[in-house]
Amino acid sequence: MFSYRNLAREAREIRLVRFCVSGNDAINLTLTRASLNDPPPYHALSYVWGDPTPTATVDLDGNPLPIGSNLNGALLRLRQNGVVAWLWVDAICIDQNNHEERSWQAAQMRDIFAQASLVYIWLGADYNNSELVLDTTQRIGPDALDAGILDLWDDWPFRLDTGSENMGDDKALSFLAELLTDEALRCPDLPKAIMDLLGRANWFRSWITQELALPRTGLVMCGSRHVSLDAFDAALSAVYFAKVGRFARQLPEWRDFGAGLGNNVFHIRGLVARRQHRRGRGADLVEFLLADLRIAPDRPFYAATDARDVIFGLLGIAADTAHLRLCPDYSKTVAQVYTTATKAMIERCAHYRLEYCTFPKDTPDLPSWVPDWRRTGLKGVEVYPISHRNCFRSSGDRLQPPVTDTDDPYGRILRRRGCLVDTVSAVLVIEPSSRGTVTLAAALASQDLISRTCMSILEFAEPSLRIGAPEAALWRTLAGGWMGDTRCGSEFDALAPKAFRQEPVPVSSLTGEQLAYIFRNTYPYPLDSKQVTGSELQALVDTFCDRIVGNAASRSGGRALFVTAGGKFGLGPENVMRDDAVTILFGTQVPIILRPSGECFTYLGDAYVDRIMDGEFMTGCPVESDFDIM
């Protein structure tokens, strides 16, 4: 078996290998050492480990070294393609049994990929029509790149809102218009082939982000085919933009372009990072971990065989790694890695929010305030933060004071300064139906249950309504304060009671402001609202009232309706219970629900609590205290 000699850390040494000429089919490699301070020209390999159980063996300087099947396939293809350059391959060039070496080699992988003259992105063997995708990207990718398609990502919502009559002078948009007439792109097998190829693990592996973002030149390889990384990106970006551009919907024959392709599948964080990197822009660690607040597409946003690599794999590309003082350390457990990274972001990253921590969690032994980053990568953000539109300011202008130490030597307790606002006095329980127990969101979304559910909500709220709480506040709370793209205002307050009670809303009963509000929040927006009259206008109003209830169903996903001892309505985490604390922690945009546990608290999640979302509570100089959250 091959035995590694230690590398010189102070010299930033790495190992490199290259193919040896042999008279048999076995892969023979020779190994050398080099310093990243002055390395020879070399290429690097980006691939998926897959099943860690070795199924093949290479000959390394005359000694056998077991490797995985996917790596074996990549090496066979590189050898067949006549590659003679020195290669950096992580499974071979890092002693995987030496945790200390793994840690410091991982810390310099940014430089390894940035300094490589070429990076091979090995997607694996041809299957599920992958050759169709590679052939397509080879054909249209270079022209898409030349047309400046990748530049559209900088201002695409604005430029793609252009009609076909106004795009003649725009090279990128003209290219997209030509693409819409490309009959080969209407091949019925192509959408699924693209979905399958972009669903491969290469695109969501945590390490792939920097492996795609940093190389000077990349080559995508799949089976016997290959295409430059930038041409591949440009080709798929062109398909996406042609699919979503407004001009693509102007002609009937264009409207089904890309049917069967979900928009989310095009969101590949490594390619996003590459475009940002090329333009001199960086992203902080939290931006990579929470790149998108949507539910994940049919593939994860990011994942790793070793759950610690969810964090470690991003440190080389995150712009604030040095500021956070984080580095790979494989001597730590998964829970320790996630806790250390989260605490660093809370203390040193101005735009990290405590409410990014959602439930459920799969990783054991995490403090309540630490997200399960592995699950977030696999599932996306499963419960939308109340603050996801950056519009609330419950704590006003108050910020967290400098961090003070707790008695916890392991860093598992988070101390936050803030105020106790109220306590939960009751939580709405939806009565079981013939389908069994249903959630609030499911009950609001069911035509069979909506009337009974709204009556249950009114009965639940009756004590607060009796002492003066406005009914509109109840419906605002169910909507999380938002309707469509706007805050709930007086127009919403006027329409919501009838919408939830399933009462008719005749057009004749509406003011001009209320009709304008309905038009503004209707998609697609009527091109000439003055021409919408009679039964068509009534149908539009009825549909909008249904949307009010549907909006509440969406906002209440993973949440429960509660009322506080002071009579306030709240929408909080679905596991909220009587006597839980409603708090405002300084620096947060929204209230936080904490559960008392001895002298400490456990974090449950964020909440919408009517009448305290815009700093109202803070104007009264409330009592402050420290909350130790474990």
TrEMBL record:
A Pfam family: HET
InterPro entries linked to this entry: HET, HetReg/Transcr_Mod
Domain Heterokaryon incompatibility: 42-211
Coiled-coil features, chain-numbered ranges: none
This protein's name: Heterokaryon incompatibility protein
Species of origin: Colletotrichum higginsianum (strain IMI 349063)
